[in-house]
Write a structure and sequence with these properties.
With 321 residues, the protein is of the alpha+beta class. Helices cover 24% and strands 28% of the residues. The chain contains seven helices and 16 strands. Bound molecules: 4'-deoxy-4'-aminopyridoxal-5'-phosphate (PMP). 4'-deoxy-4'-aminopyridoxal-5'-phosphate is lined by residues 50, 175, 201, 204-206, 225, 227-230, 265-266.
Length: 321
Protein backbone atom coordinates (compact mmCIF):
# COMPACT_ATOMS: atom_id res chain seq x y z
CA UNK A 1 0.00 0.00 0.00
CA UNK A 2 1.41 3.40 -0.91
CA UNK A 3 1.04 6.08 1.72
CA UNK A 4 -1.19 8.91 0.48
CA UNK A 5 0.28 11.93 2.20
CA UNK A 6 -1.24 14.73 0.14
CA UNK A 7 -3.79 16.44 2.39
CA UNK A 8 -7.32 16.89 1.05
CA UNK A 9 -8.60 19.20 3.78
CA UNK A 10 -8.36 22.96 3.98
CA UNK A 11 -5.64 22.93 6.63
CA UNK A 12 -2.08 21.71 6.72
CA UNK A 13 -0.82 23.51 3.65
CA UNK A 14 2.71 23.93 5.05
CA UNK A 15 5.38 21.94 3.24
CA UNK A 16 6.45 18.67 4.86
CA UNK A 17 9.93 18.50 6.35
CA UNK A 18 12.58 16.27 4.80
CA UNK A 19 13.38 14.61 8.10
CA UNK A 20 11.17 13.44 10.93
CA UNK A 21 12.30 12.58 14.46
CA UNK A 22 11.41 9.03 15.55
CA UNK A 23 12.68 7.70 18.89
CA UNK A 24 16.04 9.46 18.90
CA UNK A 25 16.89 9.48 15.19
CA UNK A 26 15.96 11.64 12.21
CA UNK A 27 14.51 9.53 9.41
CA UNK A 28 13.53 10.54 5.84
CA UNK A 29 9.93 11.77 5.61
CA UNK A 30 8.70 8.72 3.66
CA UNK A 31 10.12 6.28 6.19
CA UNK A 32 8.33 7.73 9.20
CA UNK A 33 5.43 5.27 9.10
CA UNK A 34 3.46 3.14 11.56
CA UNK A 35 2.03 -0.33 11.05
CA UNK A 36 -1.62 -0.81 10.01
CA UNK A 37 -2.03 -3.19 12.96
CA UNK A 38 -0.72 -0.73 15.55
CA UNK A 39 -3.11 0.47 18.23
CA UNK A 40 -2.36 3.98 16.98
CA UNK A 41 -3.68 3.13 13.50
CA UNK A 42 -6.62 1.03 14.68
CA UNK A 43 -7.93 3.16 17.54
CA UNK A 44 -6.10 6.47 17.15
CA UNK A 45 -4.07 5.86 20.30
CA UNK A 46 -1.85 8.90 20.52
CA UNK A 47 -1.23 11.85 22.77
CA UNK A 48 0.33 14.93 21.23
CA UNK A 49 1.36 18.54 21.51
CA UNK A 50 1.22 21.29 18.91
CA UNK A 51 3.80 23.94 19.61
CA UNK A 52 5.57 26.76 17.81
CA UNK A 53 8.99 28.19 17.23
CA UNK A 54 9.50 31.84 16.34
CA UNK A 55 12.31 33.80 14.75
CA UNK A 56 13.58 36.49 17.12
CA UNK A 57 15.12 39.75 15.96
CA UNK A 58 18.53 38.66 17.29
CA UNK A 59 19.09 35.89 14.70
CA UNK A 60 18.13 33.23 17.25
CA UNK A 61 14.83 31.36 17.12
CA UNK A 62 12.83 30.21 20.11
CA UNK A 63 10.42 27.46 21.03
CA UNK A 64 7.53 28.98 22.95
CA UNK A 65 6.67 27.54 26.37
CA UNK A 66 8.32 24.19 25.70
CA UNK A 67 8.35 23.25 29.40
CA UNK A 68 4.58 23.68 29.67
CA UNK A 69 3.96 21.68 26.50
CA UNK A 70 6.11 18.81 27.76
CA UNK A 71 4.35 18.84 31.13
CA UNK A 72 0.97 18.59 29.36
CA UNK A 73 2.23 15.79 27.10
CA UNK A 74 3.25 13.81 30.18
CA UNK A 75 -0.15 14.43 31.80
CA UNK A 76 -1.94 13.24 28.64
CA UNK A 77 0.20 10.10 28.38
CA UNK A 78 -0.45 9.31 32.04
CA UNK A 79 -4.21 9.85 31.71
CA UNK A 80 -4.33 7.60 28.64
CA UNK A 81 -2.25 4.92 30.44
CA UNK A 82 0.31 4.69 27.65
CA UNK A 83 3.48 2.85 28.66
CA UNK A 84 5.98 5.56 27.87
CA UNK A 85 8.13 7.60 30.17
CA UNK A 86 10.90 9.59 28.58
CA UNK A 87 12.71 12.48 30.20
CA UNK A 88 12.03 16.10 29.38
CA UNK A 89 15.62 16.28 28.07
CA UNK A 90 14.83 13.62 25.49
CA UNK A 91 11.61 15.35 24.44
CA UNK A 92 13.39 18.69 24.25
CA UNK A 93 16.09 17.08 22.09
CA UNK A 94 13.34 15.77 19.76
CA UNK A 95 11.99 19.28 19.26
CA UNK A 96 15.37 20.96 18.79
CA UNK A 97 16.72 18.22 16.49
CA UNK A 98 13.62 18.44 14.30
CA UNK A 99 14.21 22.15 13.74
CA UNK A 100 17.98 22.05 13.47
CA UNK A 101 18.34 19.05 11.19
CA UNK A 102 15.70 20.42 8.80
CA UNK A 103 17.51 23.77 8.85
CA UNK A 104 14.39 25.64 9.99
CA UNK A 105 15.57 29.05 11.22
CA UNK A 106 12.31 30.97 10.88
CA UNK A 107 8.85 30.33 12.31
CA UNK A 108 7.66 26.76 12.61
CA UNK A 109 4.86 24.61 13.90
CA UNK A 110 5.79 21.32 15.55
CA UNK A 111 3.76 18.30 16.37
CA UNK A 112 5.22 16.12 19.10
CA UNK A 113 3.34 12.83 19.42
CA UNK A 114 3.44 9.64 21.43
CA UNK A 115 1.92 6.78 19.40
CA UNK A 116 1.12 3.26 20.61
CA UNK A 117 2.99 1.36 17.90
CA UNK A 118 2.35 -2.13 19.27
CA UNK A 119 -0.31 -4.42 17.80
CA UNK A 120 -3.20 -5.00 20.19
CA UNK A 121 -6.65 -3.96 21.32
CA UNK A 122 -8.02 -0.74 22.71
CA UNK A 123 -6.65 -1.58 26.19
CA UNK A 124 -3.07 -2.21 24.97
CA UNK A 125 -0.63 0.19 26.65
CA UNK A 126 2.52 -0.08 24.56
CA UNK A 127 5.11 -0.08 23.23
CA UNK A 128 4.99 3.56 22.25
CA UNK A 129 7.13 5.85 20.09
CA UNK A 130 7.99 9.52 20.31
CA UNK A 131 7.68 11.35 17.00
CA UNK A 132 8.27 15.00 16.12
CA UNK A 133 7.29 16.70 12.87
CA UNK A 134 8.49 20.28 12.36
CA UNK A 135 7.05 22.39 9.56
CA UNK A 136 8.32 25.81 8.58
CA UNK A 137 5.58 28.40 8.34
CA UNK A 138 5.24 32.07 7.56
CA UNK A 139 4.11 34.65 10.12
CA UNK A 140 0.40 35.42 9.70
CA UNK A 141 -0.67 39.03 10.31
CA UNK A 142 -3.77 39.37 12.51
CA UNK A 143 -5.89 40.83 9.70
CA UNK A 144 -5.39 37.71 7.57
CA UNK A 145 -6.75 35.41 10.26
CA UNK A 146 -10.26 36.72 10.88
CA UNK A 147 -13.07 34.17 11.19
CA UNK A 148 -16.84 33.95 10.87
CA UNK A 149 -17.90 31.38 13.45
CA UNK A 150 -21.00 29.29 14.05
CA UNK A 151 -22.22 27.52 17.16
CA UNK A 152 -22.15 23.89 16.11
CA UNK A 153 -25.03 21.54 16.87
CA UNK A 154 -22.45 19.02 18.13
CA UNK A 155 -21.62 19.35 21.83
CA UNK A 156 -18.13 19.41 23.29
CA UNK A 157 -17.01 16.06 24.71
CA UNK A 158 -17.64 15.90 28.43
CA UNK A 159 -15.17 14.95 31.15
CA UNK A 160 -17.47 12.03 32.04
CA UNK A 161 -17.01 10.60 28.53
CA UNK A 162 -13.62 11.56 27.06
CA UNK A 163 -11.58 14.00 29.15
CA UNK A 164 -11.24 17.18 27.04
CA UNK A 165 -8.21 18.36 29.03
CA UNK A 166 -6.26 15.34 27.71
CA UNK A 167 -4.69 16.15 24.36
CA UNK A 168 -5.53 12.82 22.77
CA UNK A 169 -5.78 12.29 19.01
CA UNK A 170 -9.22 10.63 19.28
CA UNK A 171 -10.70 13.77 20.93
CA UNK A 172 -10.30 15.50 17.59
CA UNK A 173 -13.14 13.55 16.06
CA UNK A 174 -15.37 15.74 18.18
CA UNK A 175 -13.61 18.77 16.67
CA UNK A 176 -13.96 17.30 13.20
CA UNK A 177 -17.76 16.89 13.40
CA UNK A 178 -18.23 20.48 14.49
CA UNK A 179 -15.74 21.95 12.06
CA UNK A 180 -17.05 20.07 9.04
CA UNK A 181 -20.60 21.10 9.92
CA UNK A 182 -19.53 24.73 10.21
CA UNK A 183 -17.63 24.62 6.89
CA UNK A 184 -20.55 22.88 5.15
CA UNK A 185 -22.75 25.76 6.23
CA UNK A 186 -20.35 28.41 4.97
CA UNK A 187 -18.53 29.37 8.19
CA UNK A 188 -14.81 29.31 8.97
CA UNK A 189 -14.88 27.94 12.49
CA UNK A 190 -17.10 26.18 15.01
CA UNK A 191 -17.87 27.13 18.59
CA UNK A 192 -18.83 24.20 20.81
CA UNK A 193 -21.22 24.36 23.74
CA UNK A 194 -20.99 22.01 26.71
CA UNK A 195 -23.70 19.41 27.40
CA UNK A 196 -25.35 21.98 29.67
CA UNK A 197 -25.35 24.62 26.95
CA UNK A 198 -22.49 26.87 28.10
CA UNK A 199 -19.79 28.07 25.72
CA UNK A 200 -16.81 25.74 25.66
CA UNK A 201 -14.20 26.30 22.92
CA UNK A 202 -13.40 26.11 19.21
CA UNK A 203 -12.49 22.97 17.28
CA UNK A 204 -8.74 23.34 17.78
CA UNK A 205 -8.54 26.41 19.95
CA UNK A 206 -9.92 28.19 22.97
CA UNK A 207 -12.41 31.03 22.89
CA UNK A 208 -12.44 34.41 24.63
CA UNK A 209 -14.52 37.54 24.37
CA UNK A 210 -14.56 41.12 25.58
CA UNK A 211 -17.67 42.62 27.15
CA UNK A 212 -17.61 46.11 28.66
CA UNK A 213 -13.82 46.08 28.78
CA UNK A 214 -13.60 42.76 30.64
CA UNK A 215 -11.83 39.80 29.03
CA UNK A 216 -13.86 36.64 29.67
CA UNK A 217 -13.13 33.04 28.77
CA UNK A 218 -14.77 29.75 29.79
CA UNK A 219 -13.13 28.19 32.83
CA UNK A 220 -11.13 24.96 32.61
CA UNK A 221 -14.17 23.01 33.82
CA UNK A 222 -16.17 24.02 30.71
CA UNK A 223 -14.77 21.21 28.57
CA UNK A 224 -11.73 23.11 27.33
CA UNK A 225 -8.23 21.92 26.73
CA UNK A 226 -5.97 23.48 29.37
CA UNK A 227 -4.54 25.72 26.72
CA UNK A 228 -1.10 27.24 27.05
CA UNK A 229 -2.00 30.17 24.77
CA UNK A 230 -5.13 30.84 26.82
CA UNK A 231 -3.20 31.05 30.07
CA UNK A 232 -0.42 33.10 28.40
CA UNK A 233 -2.96 35.63 27.12
CA UNK A 234 -4.77 35.80 30.47
CA UNK A 235 -1.47 36.52 32.19
CA UNK A 236 -0.42 39.15 29.64
CA UNK A 237 -3.88 40.75 29.80
CA UNK A 238 -3.85 41.01 33.56
CA UNK A 239 -0.21 41.74 34.31
CA UNK A 240 1.00 43.66 31.26
CA UNK A 241 -2.15 45.31 29.90
CA UNK A 242 -3.94 45.83 33.23
CA UNK A 243 -7.18 44.33 31.94
CA UNK A 244 -9.87 42.75 34.09
CA UNK A 245 -10.00 39.05 33.38
CA UNK A 246 -12.75 36.52 34.14
CA UNK A 247 -12.64 32.75 33.83
CA UNK A 248 -16.30 31.85 34.09
CA UNK A 249 -19.28 30.19 32.45
CA UNK A 250 -20.37 31.98 29.29
CA UNK A 251 -23.93 31.78 27.95
CA UNK A 252 -24.61 31.37 24.25
CA UNK A 253 -26.52 34.66 24.11
CA UNK A 254 -23.42 36.46 25.37
CA UNK A 255 -21.72 35.53 22.10
CA UNK A 256 -24.18 37.80 20.36
CA UNK A 257 -23.64 40.63 22.85
CA UNK A 258 -19.83 40.59 22.84
CA UNK A 259 -17.83 43.68 21.87
CA UNK A 260 -14.91 41.55 20.69
CA UNK A 261 -14.22 37.85 20.40
CA UNK A 262 -11.30 35.69 19.37
CA UNK A 263 -10.02 32.15 19.23
CA UNK A 264 -6.57 31.32 20.56
CA UNK A 265 -4.17 28.41 20.43
CA UNK A 266 -0.54 27.65 19.67
CA UNK A 267 -1.17 27.20 15.94
CA UNK A 268 -3.91 29.80 15.54
CA UNK A 269 -2.22 32.27 17.93
CA UNK A 270 -4.91 34.98 18.16
CA UNK A 271 -7.72 34.67 15.61
CA UNK A 272 -10.33 37.44 15.67
CA UNK A 273 -13.97 36.36 15.40
CA UNK A 274 -15.94 38.93 13.41
CA UNK A 275 -19.32 37.23 13.54
CA UNK A 276 -21.08 34.40 15.35
CA UNK A 277 -24.08 32.74 13.67
CA UNK A 278 -24.04 35.71 11.25
CA UNK A 279 -24.51 38.17 14.12
CA UNK A 280 -21.77 40.77 13.84
CA UNK A 281 -19.41 40.90 16.84
CA UNK A 282 -19.03 44.53 17.97
CA UNK A 283 -18.63 46.72 14.91
CA UNK A 284 -17.60 43.73 12.78
CA UNK A 285 -13.92 44.69 12.82
CA UNK A 286 -10.93 43.56 14.87
CA UNK A 287 -11.30 45.22 18.27
CA UNK A 288 -8.66 47.19 20.23
CA UNK A 289 -8.28 44.64 23.04
CA UNK A 290 -7.72 41.85 20.51
CA UNK A 291 -5.07 43.97 18.76
CA UNK A 292 -3.30 44.82 22.04
CA UNK A 293 -3.31 41.21 23.15
CA UNK A 294 -1.92 40.04 19.84
CA UNK A 295 0.84 42.66 20.00
CA UNK A 296 1.73 41.57 23.55
CA UNK A 297 1.71 37.91 22.52
CA UNK A 298 3.89 38.54 19.48
CA UNK A 299 6.41 40.49 21.56
CA UNK A 300 6.60 37.63 24.02
CA UNK A 301 7.03 34.84 21.45
CA UNK A 302 9.71 36.75 19.51
CA UNK A 303 11.77 37.60 22.59
CA UNK A 304 11.02 41.34 22.57
CA UNK A 305 9.53 41.25 26.06
CA UNK A 306 12.53 40.93 28.41
CA UNK A 307 10.34 39.98 31.37
CA UNK A 308 8.90 37.00 29.47
CA UNK A 309 12.11 35.51 28.12
CA UNK A 310 11.75 32.67 30.59
CA UNK A 311 9.02 31.31 28.31
CA UNK A 312 11.52 30.81 25.48
CA UNK A 313 13.91 27.95 24.67
CA UNK A 314 16.64 28.94 22.16
CA UNK A 315 16.84 26.59 19.18
CA UNK A 316 20.47 27.12 18.18
CA UNK A 317 23.55 26.73 20.36
CA UNK A 318 25.22 30.02 21.34
CA UNK A 319 27.82 31.25 18.82
CA UNK A 320 31.34 31.42 20.34
CA UNK A 321 33.10 34.68 19.56
N1 LIG B 1 -8.45 23.47 22.47
C1 LIG B 1 -8.19 22.50 21.59
C2 LIG B 1 -9.22 21.44 21.34
C3 LIG B 1 -6.97 22.48 20.92
O1 LIG B 1 -6.70 21.52 20.03
C4 LIG B 1 -6.03 23.49 21.16
C5 LIG B 1 -4.72 23.50 20.41
N2 LIG B 1 -3.77 22.70 21.05
C6 LIG B 1 -6.33 24.48 22.10
C7 LIG B 1 -7.55 24.44 22.74
C8 LIG B 1 -5.32 25.52 22.43
O2 LIG B 1 -4.30 24.96 23.20
P1 LIG B 1 -2.83 25.55 23.20
O3 LIG B 1 -2.97 27.00 23.46
O4 LIG B 1 -2.13 24.86 24.31
O5 LIG B 1 -2.26 25.28 21.87
Amino acid sequence: MTAQLVPRGKEDSQPSPQLIYVDGVMVPHGEATIHVSSVAAKFGANAFEGLCAYAGEDGQSYVFRLREHLARLHRSVQAMEIDWDRSDEECQAAVLMSLRENGIRGDAHLRLSVFITGDGMCDTRGPASLVCVAKARKPAPLDTKVADAAVTSWRRIDDQVMPPRVKAGPNYFNSRYGLLEARRNGYDEAIFLTLTGKVSEGANCCFAMVRDGVLATPSVTSGVLESITRSTLLQLAEEDLGLRVQEREIDRSELYAADEAFFCGSAQEVRPVLSVDRFQVGDGRIGPVTRHLWAAYESAVRGRNEARRGWLTPVWPPVRR
